[in-house]
Amino acid sequence: MTHIFVNIPTNDLERSKAYYTALGCELNPLFTDDNAACIVWSDQIFFMVLTREYFATFTDKEFADPRTHAQVLLSISRETREDVDRIIEAGVAAGGTAPGEPQDFGFMYARDLIDPDGNGIQFMWMDPEAAAKGPEAFMAEQAQA
């Protein structure tokens, strides 16, 4: 089984732990200490939130400021459109921001959430039929109905 570990820097580890647990994530205490927190999204997806100082020990590259530079767009699926809205509301209540309007394509619904450090995540729902058939076939069937 493949697992995904996304490493992101933070200026305030305690704030990040509180933020991500407010979204419904758990912390893995075996990989959480004063330098890092293992944020558990699912059995296969984890964020390693690292202090900037500790993050710097893993790379010689300069940090990009996530408030002003995009390097990657992470998208995490939710079971329903309402689940997307709920996690966005929880993130905003915990100190995050939700820039822009929801993207509603009928077969797919997505919203962006920015954490207090500026790291962004998109949460999305896709109609299971559209995921199985592809968006064009799904939309063609919808138009015929």
UniProtKB/TrEMBL annotation:
Q: What Pfam family is a match for this entry? A: Ble-like_N
Q: Which InterPro entries does the entry mention?
A: Glyas_Bleomycin-R_OHBP_Dase, Glyoxy/Ble-like_N, VOC_core
Q: Please list the residue ranges annotated as the VOC domain.
A: 1-126
Q: Which organism is it from?
A: Microbacterium ureisolvens
* Protein name from the UniProt record: Glyoxalase
